[in-house]
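Bug #77: duplicate submission created two jobs. Keeping one. Sequence:
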Amino acid sequence: MSDDTQLPEPDRSLPAPHPRHTRQVFGQDRAEAEFLVAFTSGRKHHAWLLTGARGVGKATLAWRIARFLLATPPVGDDDGGLFGDAPAKPETLEIPQNHPAWPQTEALSHPGLFLLRRGPNDKGDKLSAQLRINEVRRARNFTQMAGSDHGARVMIVDAADEMNTEAANAFLKMLEEPPEDMTILLVSHQPARLLPTIRSRCRTLALATLNEDDVTRAVAQTDPDIALDDTTRVLAAGAPGEAVRLLSVGGAEIYTAWLAYFDTLERPESDQLLKLADAAAARGAEARLDATFGMLNVALGRLALFGAGATMAEATDGEFATFAKLCPTPHAARIWAQTQQELNTRATRARAVNLDPAAVILDMGHTINQTAASQRGRP
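Kept job's structure:
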């Protein structure tokens, strides 16, 4: 498929490289083995839904599977002829480094590959906020084209959650009548947002979060000079892609600033919230604004989990002491979880209608202060 070089790639999380350029997948041996068993047994499903937390490697695994399918004849297609031996079944998704599927998929030029993702908006000057039906129509045209040498065709949808209703309904028709020799790989961060009829026609491949060693190795693959601090490591929660993103936007610093605000809720004269608002509202600070909203969502989520008695590592010194003052009981945890949901919705709306960032953050701080005040003195 063609690639518009004038717009950023919607399925790439900066500053990490695009998943099609990532050579290794770490910590997903079980998911790889599950797909390989299905392939070698001849029971490969036509559509796979790759789920898991954002940043654990879903798209990277999808590209690894795609290269494997485009480079590997289906089991049973080649029996070795009259006197030859049947080729051995593959034991890994790895393909030779000199196989043409590597440069072709990296260049998005393989004839058997289609990448379905968000395209430009109507003006063509920005990316659309949703994956729309015109992109699905292009995908439908691809289904009529020839595939690779052995007929395999692969479609990657990244991310399936971004399809609007019209696009989702059109995509569903492709799933109901799957093209021959085509495998569809859907990357989904929030599968609950998909049509139930789409989910029901896919085989789910659930990816796990990574252990600390695998996170470190995956991040080093992105940039060997990156050093993970302890706060980022905890906040990333086993997702190396999230760790890289947090490092790029100063996530640990912003998270610590929100905790500092939480710690001053009984001292209204504090200017900690104003500092957060000013930094996020500065000219050219769109990425920081998103990170400020995102880290507040994480902080409120961790606060509620703490009150509910969840086991987790402390992200920074004093975090749990602050949480203990604000959320000492399961009842308080439920209240804070409701506040988290309310403020997350407010942040989404603020982005959509371009509200003044500083005013939004100050208003959020007011809501947090009200919630904290309502919980003071409760048993």
